[in-house]
Specification:
The chain has 12 helices and 16 strands. By secondary structure, it is of the alpha+beta class. Helices cover about 40% and strands about 25% of the residues.
């Protein structure tokens, strides 16, 4: 058998050479596109549900949100382990499925169960959110954003509306979380002494501010209802009616001094305005953490990838997107080298390539030195790759 293989290979040597060259070509092409990561995908299929619960304590979150979700999710096909965590204002439920479970089917079944229980949750809780599927290591890049010319609030708005939105368009990116963000917002910071002086309650202040901007948080307030317009109809046409707010709001152009002039009520013929009982300022939400970049306050963007994402390819596409954004963000420093697993992969591949080349050269030298026949050595050198 061996003699026949050798004889046939020598007889049809050109066909053998052509087949070997084709195999090497397709092998090298496949090798260049093969996904490489620091760690393999070792984690089983996982689905995570998070539910923000404004104003609820950890005990209330557990009783009113987490337990109803757990009861609705028990019995999902393929479910192996369910874990939950309830903290103040947040419920988290993690479902770990058996290996081999189709992730998309599991997410669909979980979504159907969650929709059944959403209606019985307290009104102060937001609808449950199913987080996107993430790889086992998930974090594939940390990007530091800082500036000496812009405030952290301005940086946050740039990152939220421009940088994050662009990075989410990169194929393979599942989520971009931001640490240290300060979202710009109008705040009515009430003064209890001034409120007591004018006999104004906190609910009156909240109603006046919410109704003025049509962004009411209280469901019983006028500002909670959107779409209060209508129309007048006569024999010839229908005339639309537009509700004109006390403050004309166009793309965040409402100034604090405008909101401060809103009237809360009247006493003895004199209007009592928001500025009489509170300080109306532009500020950010209460912070639960911070981002430090280059020894100063900044933003840290955490880029997370899908389980099937190629770390090298996704990293390079993210860097291309950042390079395209830099000319439109003057005065903003973007550092994408803080945490970059692709660097380890690139270094490992370079070292492996160098080691293979050195090994091939030494092997060729050994073959020529010990076989004493250049044709046999050449055939061996061609056959091994």
């Amino acid at each position: 058998m061996m003699r026949w293989i050798v004889g046939s290979s020598l007889k049809f040597r050109f066909i053998v050479i052509a087949v070997a060259a084709a195999l090497m070509y397709f092998g090298i092409a496949r090798l260049s596109d093969m996904p490489v990561d620091v760690f393999p995908e070792f984690a089983p299929p996982l689905v995570e549900i998070q539910t923000p619960c404004l104003g609820l304590s950890a005990e209330e979150v557990e009783e009113l949100v987490t337990i109803p979700l757990e009861q609705a999710l028990y019995g999902v096909p393929g479910l192996d382990v369910m874990r939950s965590k309830s903290v103040a204002q947040l419920s988290q439920v993690k479902m770990i499925f058996k290996r081999g479970t189709d992730l998309y089917q599991a997410r669909q079944l979980v979504g159907e169960r969650v929709s059944q229980v959403t209606g019985v949750m307290p009104k102060w809780s937001a609808p449950p959110v199913m987080l996107p599927p993430l790889s086992a290591t998930s974090r594939m890049m940390k990007i530091g954003i800082s500036s000496k010319e812009h405030s952290v609030i301005d940086l946050s708005m740039m990152a939220y509306w421009t940088i994050r939105q662009r990075l989410m368009q990169v194929p393979g990116v599942a989520n971009v979380a931001m640490w240290g963000e300060r979202l710009e917002m109008l705040q009515v910071q009430v003064d209890p002494e001034r409120m007591a002086k004018h006999g104004i309650t906190l609910n009156q202040v909240m109603d006046a501010a919410a109704d003025a901007l049509d962004v009411g948080l209280l469901q019983f307030s006028e500002g909670h209802y959107v779409g209060s317009g209508g129309w007048l109809e006569n024999a010839n046409q229908r005339l639309p009616i537009r509700h004109v707010l006390p403050i004309i709001q166009r793309s965040n152009d409402v100034k604090p001094d405008q909101l401060a002039e809103v009237v809360i009520t009247q006493k003895d013929g004199q209007p009592i305005r928001l500025k009489d009982v509170a300080d109306v300022v532009v500020d950010h939400q209460p912070m639960v953490g911070d981002g430090i970049v280059n020894d100063g306050p900044g933003l840290l963007c955490i880029v997370e990838k899908f389980p099937w994402g190629n770390t090298l390819q996704v990293t390079r596409e993210v860097e291309k997107a950042l390079d395209a954004l830099r000319p439109g963000l003057p005065g903003v420093e973007i550092d994408s080298t803080i945490f970059r697993p692709a660097t380890y992969i690139e270094t490992a591949i370079d070292k492996l390539t160098l080691s293979l080349l050195i090994g091939c050269v030494l092997l060729i030298v050994v073959l020529f030195a010990f076989l004493y026949e250049w044709r046999v050595a050449l055939i061996s050198c061609i056959a091994m790759p």
